[in-house]
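ok so for the tutorial part 2 we go from a plain amino acid sequence to predicted structure tokens. step 1 is just haveing the sequence, like this:
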Amino acid sequence: MSLNVNCQSLGDLKRTPRAPKGREDTHWLQHGDTVVLFTMDRVPFVVSSLGGEASDDFQLKPDEAAPFRDECYFFNTQVLKNPHSQLQVLKDGRWFGFQSKAADCKTLQVHKTLPTLRLTNHKFELWERWNLMQWGAMIQQPGGGLCQKVSVVFRSQRKPHVDLHVYLVRLPRASELTQAWAALVLDQAAVKFDIEAPSDFAMKEVAKAKEDAREMVDEAMLAVMSAAWRHRATKRAMAAWSRRTSQLVTKKFSLWAANTHW
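step 2 — the prediction. this is what the tokens look like for a chain of 262 residues:
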């Protein structure tokens, strides 16, 4: 079946020649990541209900109300925080999928007959799988932000003649936010105690903090060792009790067998 897709209205979802085989180092895009897709014209994709008889189904299409913006629009907070723009990444080996909470956690797929993107079920199977064929250089959010932007080409597993050419913006993971928060706290502490040019007071405070941390670690290790010792002691006691019980049962059975006339 041949598809003639309007690239301008759908955001470069089109027939393309076979792309080179994708590389395997896709660690930058993991299962559970939250992403926002943009057309090559910097227009964000949004999830909307089809309405009418198919009100339970949703579609993913470029936001018609969004004007063309400059490069900074990729990191616009209002766009990235919009739940109708956010997609959760599913990953199974080299296959990717996209799930939307705004679409009742349904999964993205190409329509079976129409050149559109739909979210119609919760499966992650043949129709919902995409292969990451190509990607460009990773661009970090300006101003020290944690978001990352990259141009990508996804190919439908069910319809390998259909490629999705988009910009993908990955929102920061929880671990990255935690690290950023910890770095901020350390920076504030450095400013507060003037670590770069430490005073006696600052050095004493740092030493005290290290000592407190060391004591907490020592207490935790003692607790773990004590628990392990109790566990081993309990296992030894249970084994001894089991052997003793087995000996008593064997002895009583022997006495009973000796006094029984068959």
